[in-house]
Amino acid sequence: MKLVTALLLCVLLPAMAVRAADAPVYYLLWFDTEDYIEPAADDAALRLALELEKMGVRATFKVVGEKARVLESRGRRDVIRALARHDIGYHAENHSIPPSPAVYLKPLGLLEGAAEFERREGHGVLDIGRIFGVTPSCYGQPGSSWGPQSNIALRRFGIPVYMDEGSHVGLNSQPFWYMGILHVFGLGPNNMRADINNPARIGEATRQFDRAAAALKNNSGGVIHTYYHPTEFVTTEFWDAVNFPRGRYTAPSDYKRPNARTPESSEQAYRILLEFVRHVKQTPGVRIITARELPQIFDSPHQMVDVTKVKQRFAESIDIDGAHSAADQLLALLGFQSRYVDGPAGRVDSTVTATSIPRDLFNRGKQDAIESIERHNRLPSHVWFGVERLSLADFAATLAGDQGGPAVAVRRGKLDFERHVAADARRAFNWAIHPEGFEAPELLELGRLQAWTLKPARLR
User: Fold this and answer.
1) What distance in Å separates the CA atoms of residue 70 and residue 64, rounded to the nearest whole number?
2) Long-range contacts made by residues 354-359, C-beta under 8 angstroms, separation at least 24?
3) Distances (CA, A) of 419 to 81, 397, 428, 451, 454
4) Distance between CA atoms of 241 and 96, rounded to whole angstroms?
5) C-alpha to C-alpha distance for 344 and 337, rounded to whole angstroms
6) Rg of the chain over CA atoms, in angstroms?
7) What is the CATH number of domain 25-297?
8) In whole angstroms, what is the distance from residue 123 CA to residue 451 CA?
9) Cα–Cα distance for residue pair 403/143, rounded to 1 Å
10) CB burial class (10 A; 0-12, 13-18, 19+) of residue 341?
């Protein structure tokens, strides 16, 4: 018995060691670089960039378009050069001047909203490219001003990553693919900050990081992120909360500067952050990366689908399966090679009342759905069978259950993947800059429709 146990250990221990070695933890440090009212925020961004550079750490600075232009107009080439040596992302055209993205996207559909986001936010993307010399590596919404239509515009801008934090959509507190964009969003316990106002809590922050890193190492690896704003290190209140509370417009001539930190308080804030980052850097098995490096550490989102398994699953539950979105699985049932398509632009109910659809009629509807996807690169909201229709969910379930006989039994689809999108519209959009009582259930509904494309991002 002892000999058998010893032999098993000889086999298992090296395998366990390999698994531990193959479970990397990646850490992202990013700064929403947005305050174009307080000049001291320029110096804060410069100091953070230089201090981190001395430590050998590259961060991602998500810059607001207006902030980039203000740095240019103030002659702060020193700040621009220092930030450019790190990584440059995008954080909206003007951040908080009303209307913010969720406010103007709320009444718009998928395609109209994408065009409007591109119109309003494209100026900032171009100015970031002109001033910093790069296409932004990522985008993140101001505050909680989220809208799924932005992802279509980001693809047009050539921005491959959505990096921010929020509750609108998430998947297992780790990165995911959504609408063709790699998302670092909704990381929950893997989103953390050291309290820069309380030196006594630095130990708590490092222990939280250690617990999160250990948990990921024991579970195939993953991503942790931390975010701040340069203005936090020099002010005690946010610049936009002072000038644009609850959607109030303030003319540039009337801008008020936020209250400043004392020099001692500011030094403490820098010290705490750098101590926390130093701890992260010294943690074995943790690699600090930027948003620009993110696509390189994940597998391709296009993976082969086992159609037989999809047929078995879809009849009961339309859900994410491993590395496959519901859209991936539906495309496989329709005979498509692996590719990306958007989710449907709307939700349309079924009108078919019969329990089955004749074979010839079903095949015509199926072919019509295929042609629609090929033309629009988007899943249809419904599929026609003569003058009656099936919703996309019911069509997917019916297609999966097709047994090949003279008629196809109609099935009702259950969209279980929609649970990954927030249901509480008031809470999801709670932000000091949104109008009082603002909520946008319309955007969450579009988010659920696009959750057909949702799936985990798998580390290489």
Assistant:
1) 10
2) 354/410, 355/409, 355/410, 356/407, 356/408, 356/409, 356/410, 357/385, 357/398, 357/407, 357/408, 357/410, 358/406, 358/407, 359/405, 359/406, 359/407, 359/408
3) 44, 18, 14, 9, 11
4) 9
5) 19
6) 25
7) 3.20.20.370
8) 29
9) 50
10) buried
Helix, strand or coil for residue 231?
helix
d(CA 328, CA 156): 22
Q: What is the C-alpha separation between 18 and 183, in angstroms, rounded?
A: 28
Residue span(s) of the chain under CATH 3.20.20.370 come to 25-297
The whole-angstrom separation of Cα 34 and Cα 41 is 9
The CA–CA distances, whole Å, from 236 to 62, 71, 184, 269 equal 21, 22, 28, 11
Please measure the distance between the N-terminal and C-terminal CA atoms of the chain and give it in whole angstroms. Answer: 39
CA separation for the pair 192, 440 (Å, rounded): 27
For residues 88-101, one letter each, b for 16 or more C-beta atoms within 10 angstroms of the residue's C-beta and e for the rest, the string is bbbbbbbbbbbebb
How is residue 183 written in tokens?
Answer: 């998302």
Beta strands in 135-180 (DSSP E): 138-139, 161-163, 176-178
SS3 315: coil
Per the listing, tokens 């951040």 go with 95
CA distance 199 to 204: 10
Rounded Cα–Cα distance for residues 234 and 261 (Å): 5
| Maximal C-alpha separation, the chain | 84
Q: Which residues contact 443 (CB under 8 A, 6 or more apart)?
A: 102, 105, 106, 146, 147, 148, 168, 425, 429
Rounded to an integer, what distance in angstroms lies between the CA atom of residue 67 and that of residue 91?
10
Instruction: Copy the structure tokens of residue 448.
Output: 């659920």
| Short-list 208, 214, 211, CA closest to 195 | 208
Spell out the residues 6+ positions from residue 170 whose beta carbon is closer than 8 angstroms to its own.
176, 185, 186, 187, 188, 420
Query: Phi then psi for 431, rounded to 5 degrees?
Result: -160, 140
> Per-block average pLDDT, block size 10, for the chain (460 residues)?
48 48 88 98 98 98 98 98 98 98 98 98 98 98 98 98 98 98 97 97 97 95 98 98 97 98 98 98 97 96 90 92 95 94 98 97 98 98 98 98 95 97 97 97 98 96
pLDDT (tens digit per residue) in 376-393: 999 999 999 999 999 999
